[in-house]
Amino acid sequence: MEVKPRKKISIGVTFVLLIAFIIISIGIGSVYISPTETIKTIFGSGEALSETIVWDLRIPRVLIAVLVGINFAISGALLQAVMRNPLADPGLTGVSSGAAVTVLCIMLLFPSLGQWIPLAAVIGGGVAVTIVYALAWKKNGISPVRIILSGVAVNAVFGGITGLLSILYSDRLPSALQWLNGSLSAKGMGDVSILFPYSLIGWVLALFCIRSANILSLGENVAVNLGENTNRIRIVLSFVAVYLAAISVSVVGLLGFVGLIVPHMSRFLVGSNYRLLLPMSMVLGAVVLLAADTIGRSLFAPLDIPAGIVMAMVGGPYFLYLMRAGDI
Predict the structure, then answer these.
(1) 43, 77, 136, 205: which sits with the fewest CB atoms below 10 Å from its CB?
(2) Using CA atoms, how far apart are residues 75 and 285, in angstroms rounded to an integer?
(3) What are 142's strand-pairing partners?
């Protein structure tokens, strides 16, 4: 399939926008740092105060926003390919809530096992999606509609478990409250060093999924006629999506709408070919989450509003707009 140069240019422009927004976001805060000073500080020639603020406080948070935004966007794009439905995202299929339950158990019950949180999140998300597929499976295979219906039910159950844990261990909840709201505050380079290797593995796996995602987008009958095992493809793509969403939940908590909105915006800009849709989703996901976090910590200063709340406030109306416009 020939790729139009205009669509490649769109990805390049969005990437430049991301770099510019990263520099601007680093400078925004209780102490304003100009873009020129920010660039000088990044390259080691800034003032001492700027060095401390930029490297110890702001760069780690910006990098977490970029990594998590990319991960959720890829996860949502792959799940939408699996279900052939633009409503699909990690939250809908129970992935986020399943990962949240296991992470919350460790945070509230076994805080000494904090180093196992990423693995626990992947296991929790995997259990959730396994239940979803088990409920959706019939003799004729997996139906995207049944996956969505099963996901809604599983998501409700795990959401109830999260609420129950919050009530039973309310005395220990303050330490996890920001995490439950999808906050990026108080993140350091240690969190970046944990998240980045896991994310890099997921990105490589996602790039190998491009052909499979394009095959699923052709439709069930076409894929079968091409000799493809659609059920196996769905399982592989779902695993990668679960993995990326779960490791992100383990770091920033419950953060919705990125995996739902970003692939839809990317599809509008570059079309449905995953050779372009996936890279665009990666870049645009980073832009969207970085914007949400920057708004949350600057617009309501000195309050630090979690990015998850900002995304819910923006994503909900945007989702309703899409429905009203007939795009979903």
Answers:
(1) 43
(2) 11
(3) 137
Q: How far apart are CA 177 and CA 157, in angstroms?
A: 20
At 222, list the tokens. Answer: 């076409």
Angle 254-260-263 (CA atoms, 0-180°, nearest 5)?
Answer: 130
Report the C-alpha gap between 88 and 234 in whole angstroms.
13
Q: pTM, whole model, 2 decimals?
A: 0.91
Alpha carbon distance 177, 10 (integer Å): 38
What the block records as the tokens of 327 is 């795009």
Per-position DSSP letters for 13-49, written without gaps between them? HHHHHHHHHHHHHHH-SSS---HHHHHHHHTT-S-HH
Tens-of-pLDDT digits for all 328 residues of the chain? 556 778 888 999 999 999 999 999 999 988 889 999 999 999 888 788 888 889 988 999 999 999 999 999 999 999 988 887 777 788 777 888 999 999 999 988 888 888 888 889 999 998 998 898 888 877 766 666 777 788 888 988 998 999 898 888 888 877 677 888 888 988 889 999 999 999 999 999 999 999 999 998 887 777 777 778 888 888 899 899 999 999 999 999 888 889 988 998 999 899 889 999 999 999 999 999 999 999 998 887 788 889 999 998 887 787 777 667 655 5
* Of 4, 285, 309, nearest in space to 185 by CA: 309
Please tell me whether the peptide bond between 279 and the residue prior to it is cis, using omega within 30 degrees of 0. Answer: no
Q: Which phi-psi region, left, alpha or beta, contains residue 86 (left: φ > 0; alpha: ψ -120 to 50)?
A: alpha
C-alpha 43/C-alpha 301 separation (Å) is 28
Which residue's entry shows tokens 């399982």?
A: 235
